[in-house]
Input
Amino acid sequence: MRQDIIVGEDAGIRIDRYLSDQCPDMSRSYLQKILKDGGVQVNDKSVKSNYKVAVGDRIRLEVPDAVEPEIEAEPMDLDILYEDSDIILINKPKGMVVHPAAGHYTGTLVNGLMEHCKGGLSGINGVLRPGIVHRIDMDTTGVLIACKNDKAHNAIAEQLKAHSITRRYYAIVHGILKEDDGVVNAPIGRHPVDRKKMSINEKNGKEAITHYHVLRRFRRFTFIECRLETGRTHQIRVHMASIGHPLLGDQVYGPSKCPFRDLQGQTLHAGVLGIIHPSTGKYMEFSAPLPKYFEKLLKILENE
Output
């Protein structure tokens, strides 16, 4: 895959750093390897990682085609909320990875879908992500849609792009939110230092809007509902942390020590997903109840 980039700003910075900002899906170490292997040319000449870009530089980046391992179907007890010939809605449990990636090639939702759907999934996202049109984090629970054919996949992807899908999440955040309702409107992009994290990024981030509504206040925490206008990676986690109310259990964007020892990851549940059905054109809404661990936490907080 080839990318052509014209440098407009940021003159004087190393090319590996410049490319990591321009290509947030690639790690800086991976880009350095491409540079070392001669995969980057500036003004038709190969350069190394220490080259400093100048305004007007014409960068040609040659990214090797990824070698993706074939994935295997695995029998799995899926919590199916709805299914027809176009789509399948799953209530994803805590701790399940959505699609295979480094370190997680088995036990993912995709492995289970491959078995359940007997290979009948959309192929647009490649061999590692068949049927997957969007995802939720490993420790986030709740409603997730997968598509069984490319027509359905394209239709749902267009709705995601147009921000017309209904998405309501439930979360417990640190601290007491004073206002009953609020909006966080702040662009999100890759963290400038830790490439595994996201952050508020006014310069290179993409538009991100989260509406929140207080459902219940406790002594130290607040139970909220969040409605997404956009769907950026870690959006709710980053937005709530940015206003001083990180999610309970989120040790990436919140306190490094969780006050509840048995809690695994952030308290975030995708409760409602609403779409226009790709074949019938009718609006359909699906919901998943709060998981048991979440309900138990709410009772504990209520009695504090």
Observations:
- The radius of gyration is 21 Å.
- Helices lie at 15-22, 28-36, 109-116, 150-161, 235-242, 292-302.
- The mean pLDDT is 91.
